[in-house]
Amino acid sequence: MELIEDINIITEPFNKAVITIGNFDGVHKGHQALFHQVIEKAEEIGGTSVVITFDPHPLRVLTQNGPPLITRKDQKIELISATGIDKILCLPFTKEFASISAQDFIQEFLLAKLGMKAIIVGSDYSFGKNREGTLDIMRQAGETHGFEVMISDWINDTETGDQRISSTRIRELVMDGRVNETPKFLGRFYQIRGKVVKGRERGGSKLGFPTANIKLHDELCPKMGVYAVTVETDTEKFNGVANIGYSPTFDDHIFTIEVHLLDFSGDLYDKRIRVNMIQRLRDEKKFSSLEELSGQIRNDIKRARTILA
Ligand code: RBF
Ligand code: MG
């Protein structure tokens, strides 16, 4: 895989580029299916599979808000790369880029710059300035310039049979704490990433359950509460229990994301970790004593061990 973040470094067109374009936030199963179609088509014609995606999110640039991302740039690129795509163009979606006319986008960018031979997009795809580029315009250009336009219909949710896999739906599940329902859309567990920072050092000494406090790298954050999780460092993987919230037993009102690793001693300070959110266990509670809170955490760990076994 080659990652290209600046189109100016592309000096000659790719060999028979098979292209798809989108935000692909979450790199969910629908996106993955689309990438596999792109790879298959590229193999069929002896060409190059190309994914064009954007960072920051176009809505962030155009409207200053936009949804909290399921996957930030680093994770998105890792996940797309894992599908076997040859070239990932991860481009800043500038206002300048947004103002390119549909015709220029096709002729100057996709054809002249990238060497497009085929494009595969969803049935709702539109492009160019004011999104005036429709699928019909793309098809007409395809006939004129000799490239193929293929429409991909994203795979359906296997359980409901008709619910389209969408980034919006996944965001809602995460914000609702229903992380155990995300793998059927994502093809993996929902993951948060961050760096381990100094906490109040009270988990170990006061409760007997030390926690790694995480400075969140992500935009999206699961609903507050207690979760069974697995934790990945660069070299190791652990089971754990996480707490997201204000630890209401203490009255300091500080929001933290913290994880206690099972069967681990030592610390992870300054390390980047990845936390796979397996299942939400309960809401946070205010306990009247530290012993009660400790007892509850002991219970949480028992449940987590069963879930993670
Ligand atoms: N703090 C609370 O005030 N109420 C809770 O219900 C609660 N549940 C937790 C569950 C787990 C599995 C963990 C690891 C922590 C929990 N905490 C809770 C946070 C705890 O108070 C915190 O880890 C320590 O105070 C250290 O910052
Ligand atoms: Mg801690």
Overview of this protein structure:
It is built from ten helices and twelve strands. With 309 residues, the protein is an alpha/beta fold. The protein has two domains: 13-152, HUPs (Rossmann fold), CATH 3.40.50; 180-308, Riboflavin kinase-like (Elongation Factor Tu (Ef-tu), domain 3), CATH 2.40.30. The strands form two sheets. A six-stranded parallel sheet has the order 1-4-3-2-5-6, sandwiched between helices. Bound molecules: riboflavin and magnesium ion. Riboflavin (RBF) binds at residues 199-200, 202-203, 207, 209, 211, 226, 241, 243, 247-250, 258, 260, 284-285, 293, 297, 300. The site of magnesium ion has 5 residues, from loops.
Distinctive features:
single chain, 309 residues, alpha/beta, Rossmann fold, Elongation Factor Tu (Ef-tu), domain 3, 6-stranded parallel beta sheet, 6-stranded antiparallel beta barrel, 10 helices, binds magnesium ion
